[in-house]
Design goal:
This protein has about 425 residues and is mostly helical. It has 2 domains: about 5-135, no CATH class; about 145-420, no CATH class. Helix content is about 80%, strand content about 0%. It contains 17 helices and no strands. It has helices at about 5-10, 15-35, 40-60, 65-85, 95-110, 115-130, 130-140, 145-165, 175-200, 205-230, 235-260, 265-290, 310-335, 335-350, 350-360, 370-395, 395-420. Helix 2 (about 15-35) packs antiparallel against helix 3 (about 40-60), helix 4 (about 65-85) packs antiparallel against helix 5 and helix 10 crosses helix 11 (about 235-260). The radius of gyration is 28 Å and the shape is elongated. The mean pLDDT is about 80.
Length: about 425
């Protein structure tokens, strides 16, 4: 008799499923055991997870799926009865009931071969259970405006995006409504991440983090706001320098992430450009940070909601126009036409030309070298525009300090472009 046949006779081929079910139940139960008001703890959760696996096994082998449904109902009724018998005004038990039902379902899913998914979901469930106080604190700090931002992003990504046609229209066959709006969702999502981080973390973790989150949300707005602070309060010049430079270094990280999502094939040639600017800029930011008086108070940074429909439509229009112009001038005027569009567009919005270059590369209308050069020009033009903001708003004091940082970022990008 073979080893496989022996294992089959005694049921040991199922041991992995049951051990994983045991571990999942213990993971969830360990967290609930710490809650004194919970009616189910380590042992109950472990047994219920095992019950789910056994129920799935029996349902499959007997061809009776109702056994699994009956087990789920029994577990739910059992927990509800426990809370009705010993009610607790501070804990109605809904969380524990749902968690126990999930433990049963996870046990069943393990038997049906969804082990990796179950592990991910079980860890996520445990995190949600464990960080109850922190999640409540976050929800209490959210304002009506914050919730509106999340809902607006949901409309942009889950309502508008799915109904748009996914085919090319317009001049040079470059406009795809679905792709255009997907870029809007991507940029809005990055902006919302920075916006939410600023709202939740606030100003208390220092200039570098404020610059990072401000750069994710809007580097232009961050540059403008802190240029005003430097103009109004002379003692904040060094702090504003760190925030503005950090926000503009973060752009390079953001662009790398966008390229990795939209057109990963271009990333190997683009990384030296973005990486060179990132290293040079980060070194300058570190030097400026060490020169900073850490006791300086951080002014508030208020940003516009990045998911407002007006903002989204404006970006979509800019992106579509830049996409068509890039394709037209690239075809009629060659590289010089494309680079002219990259410079003009990059002055105010680096995202639109970068996304356009990535899109045209994906369509085979741009070579990798041309796309990388267009993105480099857009980055340099954007730095020039930001320097103009600083010089015009904050004046000579901050401008003389920040020009060295911007030149370091530009030199790093150029060095990476030459080396690529």
């Amino acid at each position: 008799m073979t080893n496989g046949a022996i294992l089959s006779d005694i049921g040991l081929e199922f041991i992995q499923a049951f051990l994983l079910s045991l571990g999942i139940g213990m993971l969830l139960g360990l967290e609930r055991e710490r809650n004194p008001t919970a009616r189910a703890g380590l042992r109950t959760f472990t047994l219920v997870s095992l019950l789910g696996t056994v129920g799935a096994l029996l349902a499959e082998r007997t061809g009776s799926p109702w056994l699994l449904a009956a087990g789920l109902v029994v577990v739910g009724v059992m927990m509800i009865a426990a809370y009705l018998r010993q009610p607790d005004a501070s804990d109605p038990g809904t969380t524990s009931v749902v968690a126990l039902l999930l433990a049963f379902c996870y046990g069943a899913m393990i038997w049906y071969g969804y082990q990796t998914l179950v592990v991910m979901l079980a860890i996520l469930t445990t995190v949600l259970l464990y960080f109850k106080a922190e999640l409540r604190s976050v929800s209490q700090r959210l304002t009506r405006r914050d919730i509106t931002s999340v809902l607006q992003f949901g409309v942009l990504s889950l309502v508008i995006l799915p109904i748009l046609p996914d085919r090319n229209f317009g001049p040079y066959d470059t406009l795809n409504p679905y792709q255009v709006w997907w870029m809007v969702v991507l940029i809005s999502g990055l902006g919302l991440t920075g916006y939410a981080a600023l709202r939740l973390v606030g100003q208390r973790y220092g200039a570098p983090l404020l610059g990072i989150f401000g750069g994710l949300a809007s580097s232009t707005a961050t540059t403008l706001v802190f240029a005003r602070h430097a103009r109004d309060t002379a003692t904040l010049v060094r702090l504003c320098l760190v925030v503005i430079l950090t926000a503009n270094v973060v752009i390079l990280v953001r662009l790398a992430g966008v390229a990795a999502i939209v057109q990963p094939a271009l990333l190997p040639g683009l990384l030296p450009i973005l990486g060179g600017g990132l290293v040079a800029g980060a070194l300058f930011v570190a030097w400026a940070w060490f020169q900073l008086d850490k006791g300086e108070a951080l002014p508030e940074l208020e940003l516009r909601n990045p998911t407002e429909l007006g903002t989204a439509l404006t970006f979509a229009a800019i992106y579509a126009v830049v996409l068509v112009l890039s394709a037209a001038l690239s075809e009629r005027a060659g590289n010089l036409g494309l680079y002219a569009v990259a410079f003009v567009s990059g002055l105010t919005d680096v995202d639109a030309i970068v996304l356009s270059s990535l899109r045209l590369f994906g369509q085979g209308k741009l070579a990798a070298g041309e796309a990388n050069t267009a993105i480099l020009i857009a980055i340099l033009a954007n730095l020039l525009f930001k320097f103009g903001i600083v010089a015009g708003v904050a004046g000579r004091g901050l401008a003389l300090r920040i020009v060295a940082g911007f030149l370091a970022i530009a030199a790093g990008c150029l060095a990476g472009w030459l080396a690529a």
